[in-house]
Amino acid sequence: MTELICIGCPRGCHLHVDEENDYKVTGNSCNIGAEYGRNELINPTRTLTTTIRLSGGNHHSLPVRSAHPIPKKLLFEAMEVLNHREVKAPVKCGDVVYADILNTGIDIVATRDLD
Amino acid sequence: MFDVIIIGGGPAGLAAAKKCYDEGLEKILIVERDTQLGGILNQCIHTGFGLGVFKEELSGPEFAHKYIEMLRDTRVEVMLDTMVLEINRDKEVTVINGNGYQKLQAKAIILAMGCRERSRGAIATPGSRGAGVYTAGAAQRYINIDGYMVGKRVVILGSGDIGLIMARRMTLEGAEVLACVEINPYSGGLPRNIVQCLNDFNIPLYLSHTITKIEGENRVERVTIAKVDEHFQPIEGTEIVFDCDTVLLSIGLIPENELSKVAGIELDKRTKGPIVYENMETSVEGIFACGNVVHVHDLADNVAMEAEKAAVGVCEYLKGRKSEGSVDVTTYEMIGYTVPQHIHLPLDKNKYDFFFRVRKIFGPSVIYVIDSEENVLARFNRQYIIPGTMEKITVPKVLLEKGKGNLKVLIEEK
Ligand SMILES: Cc1cc2nc3c(=O)[nH]c(=O)nc-3n(C[C@H](O)[C@H](O)[C@H](O)COP(=O)(O)OP(=O)(O)OC[C@H]3O[C@@H](n4cnc5c(N)ncnc54)[C@H](O)[C@@H]3O)c2cc1C
Ligand code: SF4
Q1: Residue A29 is part of which domain span?
Q2: Each residue of B244-262: b (16+ CB within 10 Å) or e?
Q3: Which of B61, B191, B196 sits opposite A63 (nearest CB)?
Q4: Are strands B100-111 and B92-97 parallel, antiparallel or unpaired?
Q5: Which of B320, B314, B323 is nearest to B24 (CA)?
Q6: Would the pLDDT of A61 be above 80?
Q7: Which among A12, A14, A112 is the nearest to B190, CB-wise?
Q8: Contact at CB, B172 and A50, closer than 8 angstroms
Q9: What is the atom index within ligand 2 of the atom nearest the CA of A5?
Q10: Do A5 and B144 touch (CB under 8 A)?
C-alpha cells in the first residue's frame, strides 16, 4: 500500500494505492484521482511549463507548456532541448513551438500571444 | 460618464468586466498600470488555473488569454499603462498616463488591484545586506518574463505557493534548491504544490524552522537556519548552515489598498482588505472590491467567481437596489476571518457563500453557523481543513432567515 497526495486539483485528496490489488486506489474523490494514483506508481507524468527564447518581439521570453503531461523522468532532458530552442515573434497562444518532444508524441505549445 | 470603472486588469478585473458586459452595462472601463492585461497571471507560467471556471487545467497566461479573447469584440474599454492615483466617494477616478493627468467620472467603481508581496523589511532577518535576496514573486518575474536567472544555490524562506512554484522553476532551470524553510508547523501552500514542486525534486521542507542569519559581503554567501519553539523563538543548538548565493522570500502577500484608504473605505485588520458585504460592496456605497485586494486567494478561479459577484452587485446598485440595514458575520480565534464580513438585509439572494481560512490543521471537523442566540443555523462536515487552502461554505437563504441578529462561524474538531 502506498500513500499519495493527489495533484489532480487543489483539493489534494489523500490516496491509498494497493499495488497487490491491481493498483486499486482509495481515498480519491473523483476519477482523476484513481487514474493519478495508478499512473504515479507505474509511469508518473507531469505537465512541463517553462519559457523559451523569443526573437523579434517586445518580449524576449515566451511561456510554453507540454500540451499533455510527459513522463516525469524526461523533465530535465526536455528542459535541455527547449533551452536551445528559439522562436520568432509573432506567436499565437496554442502554436506548436516544438513538435513531438523526445519522441513522446507530445507537442510543446505557446501559452500566450506575443508580437 | 462611465457606468463602472474597474481598477486593475488581473483575473479579478477581467472577470468583473466580462460579467458587467454580459449583464448589459454600456460604459465599462478597465484601468491597468501595466502595459498588458492579465495581472500576476502573466508571470505564473505553470499550470493549475481554470479547473473551476473553464473545467480544464490552464497556465496563468492561458487563463488570462481566455478572458482577453472574450473581451476582444465587446464595448469594454481598456486603458493600459495608466495608473490610478486616487479615487473618492463621489466615484471620481484620477489617473495618470503618457497623456498626462485626468479625472474620470463613474457611477460605480470596482477595486481589483490585487496584492503585493511582503518583503524583507516586513520580517526581521538579521545579517548583512548583500545582493541575492529577492521576494519569490520578483524572482518569478525576472525568470519568466525578463528571461534571466537570479541564482544557482537557493534557500527559500516561507512555503507559500509562490515559493513552492519557484523551487520547482529554479530547479528545472538548473539551480540547486537546498531547502524550503517554514516557521509554522504546517506549510502555507497547497498540498499539490508540496508534492509536485518539492517532493518531486527531493527538496527538503523544514517546518518550524526559520532563517536566523544571512551572511555575505556583496552577495549572499551563507544562510543559517534553526528550529523554533512554540513562540517562534530559535532554539539554540539546532542550527544548520547552507552555502548559497540566493534567498527567496515567500512570506505572504498583502492586499494593495492605498487607494481604498484614501477614499475612506473601511479595512479589515485581519485580511488587510476592505470589509465587504455579500455583494462585494465596500463600506462606501457604489464602490465594490474583488480578488486579492479583498483577501489573498490561492485560486484564480475563486477570484473570477468573486469578481462576478461584484459585477452583479454593481448592476443591482445601478438599478437602485436599497438595503435596510445589515447583520455582521463574526468568527472566533481558530478561524482567521470571513468574507463577507456583513450581509445586507433584507436577504434577497437564494444562497450565501462564506469564505475563510483556519489558523491550524483540522482533521474531521464540523463548521457551524450560529446566530446571536447560539441557535445552529447550518452545519458542514469536513474531513480535513488546512490553513493553506481557502475554505468555502454555502448557506441557503431559508436557513439564514431563521437566525436572529448577527451570525458567527465556528469550527469544532470531532
Ligand atoms: C506565484 C503564484 C502562483 C499562483 N498559483 C496559482 C495556481 O496554480 N492556480 C490558481 O488558480 N491561482 C494561483 N495563484 C493565485 C492567483 O493568480 C491570484 O489569486 C490572482 O491572480 C489574483 O487576481 P487579482 O486580479 O486579484 O490580482 P492581480 O493578478 O495581482 O491583478 C491586479 C492588477 O491591478 C493592477 N493595479 C494595481 N494597482 C493599480 C493602480 N493603482 N492603477 C492601475 N492598475 C493597478 C496591477 O498592475 C495588476 O495587473 C498564484 C499566485 C501567485 C502569485
Ligand atoms: S481525487 Fe479528484 S478531487 Fe481529489 S485531489 Fe484528485 S482530482 Fe481533486
Answers
A1: 2-42
A2: bbbbbbbbbbbbbbebbee
A3: B61
A4: antiparallel
A5: B314
A6: yes
A7: A12
A8: yes
A9: 5
A10: no
Is any ligand 2 atom within 6 A of the Cβ of residue A13? yes
Q: Is the CB of B158 under 6 A from ligand 1?
A: no
> What CATH number is given to the structural domain containing A57?
3.10.530.10
Choose which CATH entry (3.30.10.10, 3.30.565.10, 3.50.50.60, 3.30.420.10) describes domain B119-251: 3.50.50.60
pLDDT tens for B34-43 read 999 999 999 9
Name the pTM for this structure.
Answer: 0.93
pLDDT at residue B235, as a whole number: 96
- Tens of pLDDT, residues B176-231: 999 999 999 998 888 999 999 999 999 999 999 999 999 998 899 999 999 999 99
Domains B1-117+253-321 and B323-414 share a fold: no
Q: pLDDT under 70 in chain B at which residues?
A: 120-130
Residue nearest (by alpha carbon) to ligand 1 atom 12: B299
Across the interface, do A111 and B59 touch by the CB < 8 Å criterion? yes
Helix, strand and coil content of chain A, in percent to the nearest 5, comes to 25, 35, 40
Q: Specify the DSSP element, H or E, that contains B136.
A: helix B136-141
B117 close to ligand 1 (CB < 6 Angstrom): no
